[in-house]
């Protein structure tokens, strides 16, 4: 079975192909990150909504879990950002 982690494959690319590959990876990341953030808020708020309905409370669980989802999604977005050349994250 062939392996997807072939280091020699990147060495065979021309500079234009490497630039196009980098651009497509950045574009894919830019399209993925907003969905991660929104999904975390929706999941947290949805769980809170159903907890509020089940426990007959005001929308406190929806707000609290929605904020927790936002901060969790923000943490995941920041974790997925690529590192700088010196190995440190861009935060």
Description of the structure:
The protein is mainly α and 91 residues long. 74% of the residues lie in helices and 0% in strands. It has a domain of 53 residues. It contains three helices and no strands. α2 runs antiparallel to α3. The longest helix has 41 residues. The two termini are 39 Å apart.
For the residues shown, what is the average pLDDT?
Answer: 85
Query: SSE order, as H and E?
Result: HHH
**Intertermini distance:** 39 Å
User: Can you summarize the main beta sheet?
Assistant: none
Estimated radius of gyration: 20 Å
- Helix percent band: over 70%
Which ranges are low-confidence, i.e. pLDDT below 50, for 5 or more consecutive residues? none
Number of helices: 3
Residues in β-strands, percent: under 5%
Please report the total strand number as a whole number. 0
Sheet/helix structural class: mainly alpha
Query: Given the C-alpha coordinates, what overall shape results?
Result: rod-shaped
TL;DR of this structure?
Helices cover about 75% and strands about 0% of the residues. The chain is an all-alpha fold and about 90 residues long. The chain is rod-shaped and about 60 Å long.
What is the element layout, followed by pairings?
Elements: H1 7-11, H2 15-55, H3 60-80
